[in-house]
Every structure is written in C-alpha cells, then in structure tokens.
Amino acid sequence: MRICNDKLIHEGWTRRHLLFTPKNRRPVIVEGVRYDAIVIGAGVAGLAAARKLQENGKKVAVLEARDRVGGRVETDGTTFSRPFDLGAHWFHQEEPGQNPLANWARQQGIQQQPDRTQYENKQFLEQQQRQAGLWSRSKGDRPLSELPAVKGAWAAEARNLLGPLSVGVELDQASSKDFRTMIDEKADLVAPGGMAQVVDKLAQGLELHLNTPVSLVEWSNKGCWVTAGSEKLAAEHVVVTLPVGVLQQDVVKFQPSLPAWKNKAIHSLQMGHLKKVAFEFPPGQLTATPDTGLQVKDSPMFHLVRPEGSEMSVTLVGGRTAQEWEKLGPEAAQQKVLTELRSVYGANLTPTAGAVTHWESDPLSGGSYSAAQPGQQAARAELAKPVGGRLFFAGEACEEEWATTAAGAFLSGQKAAQDILISS
Q: What is the rounded CA–CA span in Å between residue 175 and residue 377?
C-alpha cells in the first residue's frame, strides 16, 4: 500500500508539524514541542524504533525522503493479479518461530505461509548444501573466493546462488565471517498479501513526514537539531536508519562530523545487489509444478516458477550481473529472462505482464542490502554503536546474525530505541 502525503508544511521558526497516520490522512497541527527523538527513515528499522519509543511515552517524529513508508520494502499491487514484492519478500529463519518480525506480524493478523520452493535439480541442491557447509565451518574473515570449493557439474551455479544471489556481491568481495554469522534459510515464510502489510502496521499511529529529505543533523551535549528543507526540528536524540549506500554518499551532513571510527565502519561495508524480473503468464503456459526453483546450466539466473501456485515467474540475478543488467535497461533484462524461460517451457511462452526492479540505481538505497567487505565483518557492530549519547544508528546493516533481512532492521530499530530509553 502506498501512503502519499504532501510535504511537511513549513511554518518558519514556530516548528509546527503535521501528524499523519495511514488511517487518518487529515493533518492535525501540533504546536512546536521539542521531540524526545527524531527518526530519519521510515523503513522497517525507523518504524520499529519510533513505535517502541512512542509506546514508552516518548514524543517522536519520523522523517522520510520517499513518498511512502517501507524503504526497501515495497509491494506492487497493480501490475499483476497478485501482490509482488519489489524488495524484501521472505521472513528468513533457520527454525520455525525464530523470526522476530514474522512473530510480530503474526500478532497483527498478517497471514503467513511456509516458503515451499523445491529445487528441480537435486544434484544442484546437494552441491549447494555441501558448499554452504564448507563455508560455514571456515575460520577467520577472508573472501569467499579463497575458501575450499566443492567439485561437480553444478558447483559453479551453487556458488552463484550462495554468493551473488544471496549476499549480493561477488565471491572475492564477500566476507566469509559475514556468511557464516548470518541466519540460515531453512524454514522461511512468505506473506501472500505482500510485505507492505507489515510496514503499514508498523507505521500506524506514528507521526510521519513523507517527501521530507534530511540534509543536516547538528548535535551537541545540549541536544540535536535536524534540518529538512526550510524546517529545523529539535530533539533530544536522533535515530539514523539510512542504508549504507546512502551514508557513504554523505547525503546527510553531520555537524560536528561523525567520529573517524564511525566513518570507518560505514565505509567498511558495501551494498549488495539483487534484481528481480517478474512475469505473469496465461494459465497453463508454465508447465511446471508450483513452487519450482529452476537453475539452468551456466546461467547467472535463478527462477522461482509458479511461486505459491501462481502463474508467475520471478527471476533473480545478483552482484555484478544485477548491476550490468541495470545499465542495459529493463527491456533487455526481460528479454534475457524470457529467452531462458522459453528454452525450458517452450517458444510460445508469452507474458501478459512484467516488472523489473531497480534497487541498483535507487539513490535512496544504493542497492538491495548490506554486505561486509572481506576482513571487515566487525564493522556491523561498530555501525550500531551510538555517538555522543545523541546519535543512534539502526538498519539491517547494524545486525550480525540477521544482517540483510527485514527482521534485522526490525531488531536493530528496537535496540536503538531501547538504548535511548535506558539513557533517558
């Protein structure tokens, strides 16, 4: 669901604000009050932080540059006959009931079901499992490309699935410690109605200012001041939930500047890339059993065919391939996918609708999710540390076990809020 509100109305130095909620879009003017916290970013981390603070009696405002909530969670509800998640789609977990965001969403009445994807090629699956086991038992923090590699007909494709298609970067850029620390994906869940349901629930009742990019954060022992357009808002604390790809571009300035150790943490991480190319077909054209995971030999693509019993295909490419396809444009990407699908399901395969994601070139994300550079996995914990008792940081990049996931963003937002509550 898209929430499109006009930009915060500026009332000069009186600092009057508008209160928006998904249920009530009529503005309610609130006279200027110093906030307990201002949250930068209305993704899962920002919404989770704001909700926890507000539930504990704090005055909170969330400033978001986009015209919607969710950040890298976005559901397309119009292109296909069913919702399609452009960004986060899975509740990843190794064991049932392990995902904290899935547990919260279930309490809100959001329907979930197990991910039933079955690999069509059993040899490919076996080599993928063997390779994952080898990497998970590694020591130190080296590039995945330097670790032992399994042999076999589908070994290269298995490594592509575990590397670019999972962590979003090539094996020589991927941290082995990052790989073995992150949660495994064995009991994943999906929300058939789309992940936007989750962020809409998180956003309910919060003071949200959309179309409101922040340009400057000033901070001292006396408090914080956040500049967004011509408005300058005062707060005791600021929670920064910008993606690593945005932090690295210095889109938001800090005065005084962030300390050297924080900047080092920001630049020791990188953004991974995952592109989705989705099609919907007339019934009967995709001659595959529901929830088929299709891997073609020597291909960088992985296809989810008829996910959840639909007449759709969702093709994933990651890392360097995703970046190259973004430069080629959406039509070229669709043609590449359609050519490969036709080689398997017949030359007459003709889609009725299609969509291509563009997180690679999105200036408000810089990519799909974070990845640690080899030897730099400890940067995640450094990124999560507060600065000067005033600036707090959250987002999936701040998590270790739950890095790259919406659940990691949720947890990190709650942790940042808890740190503020303890310090208040």
A: 7
Tell me how far the alpha carbon of residue 149 is from its chain's centroid: 29
Q: Using the 8-state DSSP alphabet, how is residue 70 labeled? A: B
Angle, CA 241 vertex, CA 235 and CA 246 arms, to 5°: 120
- Are 50 and 39 in contact, with CB atoms under 8 Å apart? yes
Same domain, 122 and 170: yes
Q: Which residue, of 168, 187, 206, is where some domain finishes? A: 187
In a domain, residue 292? The reply is no
Residues ≥6 apart with Cβ < 8 Å to 396: 45, 369, 370, 402, 403, 404, 405, 406, 408, 409, 412
Residue span of the structural domain in which 162 resides: 118-187
d(CA 389, CA 286): 56
Judge if 202 and 183 occupy the same domain. Answer: no
State the residue for tokens 């495994």: 184
What is the distance between the alpha carbons of residues 370 and 82, in angstroms, rounded to a whole number?
29
Do 137 and 249 have their domain in common? Answer: no
Query: What is the predicted pLDDT for the residue at 31?
Result: 41
Residue type for 2, please? R
* Phi and psi based region of residue 100 (left: phi greater than 0; alpha: psi -120 to 50; beta: remaining): alpha
Which residues does 99 contact at the CB level (< 8 Å), separation at least 6? 91, 92, 93, 189, 407
297-353, pLDDT tens digit by residue? 999 999 999 999 999 999 999 999 999 999 999 999 999 999 999 999 999 999 999
- Provide the whole-model pTM: 0.92
Domain annotation covers residue 84: no
Integer Cα distance of 256 and 45 in angstroms: 24
Round to whole Å and give the CA distance between 166 and 189: 16
The answer to whether position 335 is within a domain reads no
Q: What are phi and psi of 382, to 5 degrees?
A: -65, -40
Domain count of the chain?
2
- The residue from 187, 208, 243 where one domain ends is 187
Q: Which amino acid is at 180?
A: R
Please report, for residues 21, 35, 46, 167, 350, the alpha-carbon distance to residue 53 in angstroms, rounded to integers and kept in the order given. Answer: 16, 11, 11, 31, 50
Q: Which residues contact 190 (CB under 8 A, 6 or more apart)?
A: 89, 90, 91, 112, 113, 114, 115, 308
